[in-house]
Design a protein that fits this description.
- The protein is mostly helical and 70 residues long.
- It is 76% helix and 0% strand.
- It contains two helices and no strands.
- The protein has helices at 2-11, 27-69.
Length: 70
């Protein structure tokens, strides 16, 4: 019970909540952040290409079905 009251008291604490600083604090962090950003961009490009290929496959199958029915 005491733990629940303490947590409730902390949650009601007035004032602004602390903001988390997302900037890297050292050279390793900066290199790591840049590598992750580059990886994220590469993944986005790959995802767009895969989506294009899948759309082409679905369109081809739909056209072939339409031709065979007609």
């Amino acid at each position: 019970m005491a733990l629940a009251k303490a947590v409730a008291r902390l949650m009601r604490r007035p004032g602004p909540r602390p903001v988390v600083d997302e900037k890297p604090g050292c050279a390793y962090g900066m290199v790591n952040r840049r590598a992750l950003d580059d990886l994220e961009q590469a993944f986005a490009r790959l995802e767009a290409k895969v989506n294009g290929v899948l759309l082409g496959i679905v369109a081809t199958v739909a056209i072939e079905i339409w031709r065979s029915v007609r």
